[in-house]
């Protein structure tokens, strides 16, 4: 069965000027990752610093999708931005957990929860040794 039967759909909304909500529907794999990356790159180019990536309608994601999420995470950190994955499907959540991506990139259950995390700022202290001070 050709993968073309499982096309990727990517929708972009702007809940705020510097926040892009990227809703992905379909298989996020080596055959569709370029389209996903193009949408993220376009939003970076337009000055978005925070990315909310809704993966609730993605039944499968391979390392291509994970690498793109990690790349945009690295790019946004330089601009005091953030990346948040929203409500990944169970199979995708398992992959994110097993690979450790969910430790680096926060996972939220809703857009509102992710927006609240954007407002809170980074959750990681600058110096873990000072955390108890």
Automatic annotation (TrEMBL):
Classification via PROSITE patterns: STAS (PS50801)
- Domain (STAS) spans 17-118
Coiled-coil region(s) at which residues? none
* MF-aspect GO terms: anti-sigma factor antagonist activity
The entry sums up its family as follows:
Belongs to the anti-sigma-factor antagonist family.
PANTHER family membership:
ANTI-SIGMA FACTOR ANTAGONIST TM_1081-RELATED (PTHR33495:SF2), ANTI-SIGMA FACTOR ANTAGONIST TM_1081-RELATED-RELATED (PTHR33495)
Q: What is this protein called?
A: Anti-sigma factor antagonist
């Amino acid at each position: 069965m050709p993968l073309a039967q499982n096309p990727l759909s990517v929708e972009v909304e702007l809940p705020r000027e510097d926040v892009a909500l990227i809703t992905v529907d379909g298989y996020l794999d080596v055959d569709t990752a370029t389209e996903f990356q193009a949408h993220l790159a376009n939003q970076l180019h337009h000055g978005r610093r925070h990315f909310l990536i809704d993966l609730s309608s993605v039944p499968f994601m391979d390392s291509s999708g994970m690498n793109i999420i990690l790349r945009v995470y690295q790019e946004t950190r330089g601009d005091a931005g953030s990346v948040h994955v929203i409500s990944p499907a169970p199979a995708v959540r398992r992959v994110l957990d097993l690979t450790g991506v969910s430790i680096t990139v926060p996972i939220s259950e809703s857009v509102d929860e992710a927006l609240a995390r954007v407002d809170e700022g980074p959750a990681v202290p600058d110096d873990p040794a000072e955390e108890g001070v």
